[in-house]
Design goal:
The chain is mainly α. The protein is built from six helices and no strands. The mean pLDDT is about 85.
């Protein structure tokens, strides 16, 4: 049986490659200015605006207050967990180092999902004459703000 050998020695240093040098404070600042980030609080604020608009539109189109309240509650099922998630990720503990940041991300994502599920289970008790279709429309439209945030986020400048 023939022995298959690698095409090249992967452990050998390639000519022209140098060690990675850390950025200076000035270079890091220039990189931050070149690649601005969008605050998660702007996304949450956008979700609040969209949830309110969907609730008012549902009430206006159907003429039923329970449809508006249901759509609004559907928006809250997205907004409240997103606010908790943003608060958790922006805390000092979640940003001390890479390990705590990744652990914090998963913990707060679990909290976000759990709160959303609990709010959906409690929906019939929280909204009288709950309209599930209006709730789902409010939930889905409010959730789409994440995509809108990606479209309107500050563009990265290529130098």
């Amino acid at each position: 049986m023939p022995i298959i050998r690698p095409a090249r020695d992967w452990d050998a240093e390639e000519p022209g490659l140098s060690e990675v040098e850390p950025l200076s404070a000035k270079q890091a600042q220039a990189l931050r200015e070149q690649s601005p980030s969008l605050s998660p609080w702007w996304v949450v604020a956008g979700q609040v605006i969209v949830a309110t608009a969907v609730a008012l539109l549902a009430w206006g189109f159907t003429g039923r207050a329970n449809a508006g309240w249901s759509a609004g509650y559907g928006g809250l099922v997205v907004v409240i967990p997103a606010a908790l998630f943003a608060r958790g990720l922006m805390s000092r503990f979640s940003s001390t180092n890479a390990l705590t940041a990744s652990f914090g991300f998963f913990v707060w994502d679990l909290v976000k999902i759990s709160v959303s599920v609990v709010m959906l289970v409690l929906a019939p008790r929280m909204v009288t004459e709950l309209d599930w279709l209006a709730l789902l429309i409010g939930l889905i439209v409010t959730m789409k703000v994440y995509w809108l945030a990606l479209l309107v986020s500050p563009k990265r400048r290529i130098v």
